[in-house]
From TrEMBL:
GO terms for cellular component: cytoplasm. This is Cysteine protease. Its EC number is 3.4.22.-. The keyword Hydrolase applies. It is found in: Cytoplasm.
């Protein structure tokens, strides 16, 4: 009876902390992110220019970015921005990345009374995001974008923790330093109905959902929080502990090794030792026989835990980090501020672009057919000065073939 009483107390504490962190971290979707029109923006190896000489076009105002309230309560529904370049393509690309955040009310974690990872699971979440990007490259390719990326406003899904997400999402158009045109532009046309999709679109939709389902918050999900915590126990970590970027790298390697889904047998993970990638070891992993007995090589996700300075990040590493995020092989960086992990996916000038896991959303059952996707895609990018970056981080790369690895090695050496 005493143990039962203790469990009840832990459950109440867990719910209280979920509510507390939900309020504490709600600010991340209130603040606006500012982008310059005059500098290129890099996102996981792709470059976007928001200004092209002599070429200007009006941008549609999408609810996902502009329906939110600003910090002073004003509304951007009817504000449109004149700007040049391919902002729309950048937004679509960014939103298409898989966003994994704190969750609450998921099945209890084995060996604890926890049903949320609020306040402690951020590095596991950023690790999941990095691995998810590697899997997206593997199954969907870098050119893929979610067809519904700019239609997130059309969903009334209850998978969001609260309407705050929709109301307080940062206004991307309004944040750009450009002239504003009060004229109301027509809303974009919606995508074709699912019955009009071609075979490729249907295949991509299947893999999109399958990849997200592998990160579901349930004991059965291959790369879900429950499984990652089990693998972390061998590193002395328990549910509720804070995980560092290097520990998470080894947890991800173990999770991929133990994955039993036939679809995952063609991919492996290599973790660098002492910041050194041994080419022969990587190639050996790629050339290891597939479990199915079929000939061929495995794709590899290379994780490199590094430290970019002593107590603070050395600014001499800025160009190095920029060079890494400019490579087509890069799948992002697990980093952030001290005790606060972010998933870095790009940069503009001396600021890093990231996705923030510090927002508590409700559990989504990814085992059901057509589960809601909206809460797995971030509606707004955020930026942080490189100077604020914690020196401890893990850099990720994806190479589909041995030839890709050799080419990536050459490019990384140049960086």
């Amino acid at each position: 009876m005493e143990a039962t009483g203790t469990d009840e107390v832990e459950k109440i504490k867990s719910k209280f902390m979920s509510a507390w962190h939900n309020m504490k971290y709600s600010w991340v979707l209130k603040t606006k992110t500012y982008f310059s029109r005059n500098s290129p923006v890099f996102l996981l190896g792709k470059c976007y220019h928001f200004k092209t000489e002599g070429e200007y076009r009006a941008l549609h105002s999408f609810h996902s970015f502009s329906a939110g309230l600003s910090t002073d309560g004003s509304n951007f529904d009817n504000i449109n921005t004149e700007i040049s370049g391919n902002v729309e393509e950048f937004r679509k690309d960014f939103i298409s990345r898989i966003w994994l955040t704190y969750r609450e009310e998921f099945p209890q974690i084995k060996g604890s009374a926890l049903t949320t990872d609020c306040g402690w699971g951020c590095t596991l979440r950023t690790g999941q995001m990095l691995l998810a990007q590697g899997l997206m490259l593997h199954f969907l390719g870098r050119a893929w974008v979610w067809p519904e990326a700019l239609d997130m406003d059309s969903s009334d899904s209850e998978s969001w923790t609260s309407s705050t997400v929709r109301k307080l999402t940062a206004s991307f158009e309004a944040s750009l330093t450009a002239e504003r045109d009060p004229k109301i532009l027509p809303r974009p046309q919606r995508r074709p109905a699912r019955r009009d999709w071609d075979v490729t679109e249907m295949r991509n939709e299947v893999y999109h959902r399958k990849i997200i389902s592998w990160f579901g918050d349930s004991p059965l999900a291959a790369f879900g929080l429950h499984q990652l915590i089990e693998y972390g126990k061998k590193s002395g970590k328990m549910a509720g502990d804070w995980y560092g970027p290097a520990v998470v790298a080894h947890i991800l390697r173990k999770a991929v090794e133990e994955a039993r889904d036939p679809e995952l047998q063609g991919i492996t993970v290599y973790v660098a030792q002492d910041c050194t990638v041994y080419s022969s070891d990587v190639i050996d992993r790629q050339c290891s026989s597939l479990d199915s007995g079929k000939a061929g090589t495995k794709a590899v996700i290379i994780l490199v835990p590094v430290r970019l300075g002593g107590e603070r990040t050395n600014t001499d590493y800025l160009e190095f980090v920029k060079g890494i995020l400019s490579l087509e092989y890069c799948v992002g960086i697990i980093g952030g501020k001290p005790k606060q992990s972010y998933y870095f996916a790009g940069f503009q000038d001396d600021s890093l672009i990231y996705m923030d896991p510090h927002y508590c959303q409700s559990f989504v059952d990814v085992s059901i057919k057509d589960f809601p996707l909206e809460s797995f895609h971030c509606p707004s990018p955020k930026k942080m000065s490189f100077k604020k970056m914690d020196p401890s981080c893990t850099i990720g790369f994806y190479c589909r073939t041995v030839q890709d690895f050799e080419k990536a090695s050459e490019e990384i050496t140049k960086v």
